[in-house]
Write a structure and sequence with these properties.
9 helices, mainly alpha
Length: 185
């Protein structure tokens, strides 16, 4: 029974990712989740009390995976500048991943305080990864620089997500150049 519930919960989260990446937060409804998973609408409420609860669980499950991928990319290179470059490149590479599209859709929506706090904490974890590399470059304010650096990444993510006129590789190269130029200056 517990294994069945776990599988159903995983199926609901997977359906939520698909709905979010295909249609944004408006697409994430309990009737749509029920239809995608073959469950009765009332059964969806047995797993999640609200849409915000689905969002919170997605954050708990997907952000750590995404962060681990960024961290692994940084660990695979040597030197502070290479780590910063890997940090930017990996996040922008993940834009096409369905988990990331769901996270972007979640971030853009109106959420309750609990979900917002989970997103803030996850982003804080990403920023903490890059602070050490900035400190290694003797940056005067590595935490502030990390937050600004993440702002460049977030802007590039939005540009890619919007299907901007520029090719994603061009956006990535511009972001890397801007970030590295900024941390050197």
């Amino acid at each position: 029974m517990a294994e069945h519930r776990s599988m159903q919960r995983a199926a609901l989260l997977d359906a939520a990712r698909s709905l979010l990446s295909e249609g944004g937060t408006e697409a994430l409804t309990f009737p749509a989740l029920a239809e995608r998973t073959g469950l009765a609408r009332s059964s969806v409420y047995e797993y999640f009390r609200s849409r915000a609860a689905v969002v919170e669980e997605l954050c708990e499950v997907d952000f750590p995976v995404w962060a681990a991928e960024v961290e692994a990319a940084m660990a695979a290179v040597g030197g502070a500048e290479a780590k910063i470059e890997a940090y930017v490149r990996k996040q922008l590479e993940l834009v096409g991943d369905r988990r990331h599209r769901a996270v972007v859709a979640i971030s853009a929506s109106e959420l309750d305080a609990g979900a917002r706090e989970k997103i803030r904490a996850a982003h804080g974890g990403l920023i903490a990864m890059i602070v050490e590399a900035l400190a290694d470059l003797d940056h005067a304010e590595p935490r502030l620089a990390a937050m600004l650096l993440q702002g460049v990444v977030d802007a590039a993510v939005r540009r890619i997500e919007l299907g901007a006129a520029e090719h994603p590789e061009a956006i990535t190269e511009a972001a890397v150049s801007m970030v590295l130029g900024g941390v050197r200056g």
